Amino acid sequence: MSVSEMFAALQGALGQDQDIREEIRKVVQALEQTAREILTLLQGVHQGPGFQHIPKKCQKAREHFGTVRTQMESLKTKFPADQYYVCPGSHTATHRHHWRFVLQRLVFLAAFVVYLESETLVTREAVAEILGIEADRERGFHLDIEDYLSGVLKLASELARLAVNSVTAGDYSRPLRISTFINELDSGFRLLNLKNDSLRKRYDGLKYDVKKIEEVVYDLSIRGLNKEATVGAGGEK
Amino acid sequence: GSGGFRKRKHDNFPHSQRREEKENVTPPSALMASFKSFQLELDTRHDKYERLVKLSRDITIESKRTIFLLHRFTSAPNGEEILSESEVKLDAVRRKIKQVAQELIGEDMYQFHRAISPGLQEYVEAVSFQYFIKTRSLISVEEINKQLVFTAEDREETTNMTSNSCDKQPHTWSLKVTPVDYLLGVADLTGELMRLCISSVGNGDIDTPFELSQFLRQIYDGFTFIGNTGPYEVSKKLYTLKQSLAKVENACYTLKVRGSEIPKHMLADVFSTKTELIDQEEGLP
Predict the structure, then answer these.
(1) pLDDT tens by residue, A168-178
(2) Superfamily of segment(s) B41-153+171-177
(3) CATH superfamily of the domain spanning B179-284
(4) Which of B38, B114, B215 faces A149 most closely, judged by CB atoms?
(5) Which residue, A115, B18, B36, B221, shows the most beta carbons closer than 10 Å to its own?
(6) Residue A133: CB partners within 8 Å, gap ≥ 6?
(7) What domains does chain A contain, in order, with CATH numbers?
(8) Phi, psi for residue A64 in degrees, rounded to 5
């Protein structure tokens, strides 16, 4: 094979990668659109009257995740299954690089919905199911553990905000529950030995969320408002 | 005296500690359990990555040494010896690559690509340099990958003992150099070829520079054909490639113009001053 033939063949391979990249970009744009819609929907919970409509909003959000699943299906068809981590664009960027951001946001949104519904942390398997993807690498398009953890960290910041706003809306018991949850999450993350990467950077922000929520709980307890909340809860029984 | 004091202090200490421990014992929740498994998963992944980085560094170092060895080829009277020695060295590098391939069994190679890419590029450079010296042509990706198919020699021995079913399917695995790794390696190769050109003139070899300029031009044309379809790193190397090519072309020019006038034994001197001049010119924008 002559030198020019070799380079022509290489160019062909690189050109194909470029086509794949463009296809991926299109689907990712659609996914981003859906993610924004879900986010807008869930943002409603931060406003006073939104607190009463949490179940309804969660249900709506779950309907939107149906769209996400079909979009994920189409993303899966855009490239060979074994090329999840392939690096076409830059030498250091991967196919995954294109959908990473939106995938993390979708994990956050799914985790947020699950938290609002049941006040528990969504498992990796459950998120994968909500998004219509796999939890294991072996079974195809999967949810990478780092993306899952990044999404969970985004949830922590959102809950810090929710704690503040629920006090404003007069719900004094929610911050206490959020505090327990976030503390557990924090001790969970403490178990991990993170490398100096983007996940680590985001994890470094978790302590500020913890601090914020602790401040809210402090403000409530110093005014005796947390007792009121528990008494109120007891009274309901 | 002091012993008693120590003892008293000792008595107080564990007591408070014990109490703390008791308070900390909480039933392991589902969340903590899953984070424990995440810890395991992340640690396994990071460990593998580190092992691959180390292998990659070893591959880089050995490949670099092979290249240095091959540069001695032109000046040495016993060229064959150096070629066979380089073959031995490259075999050692391939054994390292085999270890890399073993690490990557059942993994997605591209997930760890960043760890091994530098080593693979250097290997491509060394192998293609040797191939050029031997055949005066460019090695193809397929050719390189063909040498990176490994069979499990030591594993066969154990499987023979235990079961026969494994024997029917000979266990082989391979590592594929990606097109981009190949391209970056070849781009580095051109730098070595430029050095080869300059040093061969020093040895009074007048044919090699012309051959090299021809070859480099082909590669340069190839890279310009790829242009910006390739990743960013490739276009970055294109600039250095252009400089190397200019250096070789200027060398050929000097040989052509001045070669007939100057006695052969003085050629090296004239040439070395000329290259210095070129270097200075390149410093200007």
Answers:
(1) 888 899 999 99
(2) Translin; domain 1 (1.20.58.190)
(3) Translin; domain 2 (1.20.58.200)
(4) B38
(5) A115
(6) A72, A76, A140, A141, A142, A143
(7) 3-226 (1.20.58.190)
(8) -60, -30
